[in-house]
Amino acid sequence: MKNCERLVSSGRFRPNQPGLLIAQSYEDVLTSKEPILGSATLCVISLQRNEHRIYTATLGDSGYLVVRRGRIVERSVHQKHTFNTPFQLACPPPVQSRNFYQD
């Protein structure tokens, strides 16, 4: 998420394309000289008040609800391989990559 924050702060973010923000941030992680261990599910939401729209991108079991006047009008769908294995972004060490689901 630090990469997402950096890209948004630098103005390199299209509010109507949060999925592109995720892709650019992940690309930065992959090309980083410092290995980052771990994995993450995520949810990025961009609220564009002047357009009266929200733009969303989710991965895995992170999610959102849009509530309007006390009613749920939109919700994200969880993405998973099988039970208890949500989609995640990760950079597994090459020696352990066979122990990960990879798409």
Automatic annotation (TrEMBL):
GO molecular function: metal ion binding; protein serine/threonine phosphatase activity
Substrates-to-products reaction catalysed: O-phospho-L-threonyl-[protein] + H2O = L-threonyl-[protein] + phosphate; O-phospho-L-seryl-[protein] + H2O = L-seryl-[protein] + phosphate
Alphabetical keyword list: Hydrolase, Magnesium, Manganese, Metal-binding, Protein phosphatase
Cofactor section: Mg(2+); Mn(2+)
Key word Metal-binding present: yes
Gene Ontology CC, one term: mitochondrion
InterPro entries xref list: PPM-type-like_dom_sf (IPR036457), PPTC7 (IPR039123)
Protein EC: 3.1.3.16
Enzyme class: hydrolase
Superkingdom of source: Eukaryota
Family assignment from sequence similarity: Belongs to the PP2C family.
Protein name in UniProt: Protein phosphatase
Organism from which the protein derives: Opisthorchis viverrini (Southeast Asian liver fluke)
Upper taxonomic lineage: Eukaryota, Metazoa, Spiralia, Lophotrochozoa, Platyhelminthes
